[in-house]
# Entry
Amino acid sequence: MPELTPPKLPPPTAPDQLPRRRQLLVLAICCMSLLIVSLDNTALNVALPSIGRELDAGVSGLQWTIDAYSLVIATLLMLGGSTADRIGRRKVFVTGLVVFALGSLLCSLAPSLEALVAFRALQAVGGAMLNPVAMSIITNTFTEPAARARAIGVWGGVVGISMAAGPLVGGLLVEAVDWRAIFWVNLPVATVALLLTLRYVPESRAPRPRRPDPVGQVLVAVLLGSLTYAIIETAPLFALVAAAALAGLLLYEPRRREPLIDLRFFRSAPFSGATVIAVCAFAALGGFLFLNTLYLQDVRGLSPLDAGLYMLPMAGMTFVCAPLSGRLTGARGPRPSLLVAGTAMAAGPLLFAAFEAETSDALLFTGYVLFGIGFGVVNAPITNTAVSGMPRAQAGVAAAVASTSRQVGQTLGVAVVGAVLGAGMAGGSREEVFTAAARPGYWIVTACGLAVLAVGALTSGAWARGTAERTARALETADGPPAPVPGAQRRR
# Structure
């Protein structure tokens, strides 16, 4: 009797072989994960006064409620991206959804501020497995340059929409139920995303993934954690620790063959510019939301829902401008979007810093509209520029740098603006001194917008594109040619 041999099955479908409809479904799944990770932090902003009253938390406690989440995500994003490239992107993505859902459930049950901060950190561990991995999945699913640019534009639009819509969603949930409902809403979304991922997202790995870099990972954690603690708690010793960790990174990482942070990426002016712009833009967002959430509820006495409705013009403009920016970036390159974003993100908070926009509803809403335009426009060029020119095999690492910059920016924005606000309010009631104490914070946010404008103008011209082309060639690996740089093919 002849030996029976099993029939040869076709190889698993590679991401770049997926039919168009399935590609779009994968994009939708990735955007679902991004939605809950990004929405969670900004939605919680509007609940800060309620959390402060129930859990007896001061300004620094409220800062940690936000920063424990963004700090842990920032610390672990690059590890999440490189781990996914090594052991499997779908595997890490699925694990991230489970951990994020578990952390959300525990946050909703937190009996104290300390427990809430700890559970927020756990939730962020899951979030760190989602954002960079989802971007890596998108990059490896959409292999045609134009389709990839459109997909990244959608991704950037979801970032902007989720970040700006957070206050309205948070206000609705706090008003209708309780601040804990902000975490409940994550559970069904994460469950649906998990089931769809298991069914439709193919597994993929980098042909030549990077080796683990535990020393670099520890140095990053020490740097970000010490810097944030030094700012929030006014601890100079921890500032010295952060400086030492930064020096250690700059000395150690270039010596490794496969570092956690490949400093060669920063030879590309657009990539470096995107990193700086992401930090400044999200620092502006974190500080702007923190100040306005406390002002609207603690000074004006609005309910969480009314506070969210007051900030609806900002969310609305972000919703409108984010997809338009994606199309504009794909058609004209990042420069027009970055110039518009920087101008609007500086003009909005300037109304509060120089013209006391809080005293006039017309000025206040104008400030919200301008800031919403700027923030809606800025995300697509950040994402597209950061990923373009990087080898597909290291897409997780490159995407993680951009995502890390966002989280670092938001962490620093809340820490710095909150510290300035807390110092200005010492010795007086919140209602009496809040407006004056918030003024330096608005100047800081204005400066962040101006930085977006200046860096965007500097790193989006012909010279900058040339540095991106040279960096892309230098980073070329056995995986094939690097992704094209937007605008590189145009006449100069």
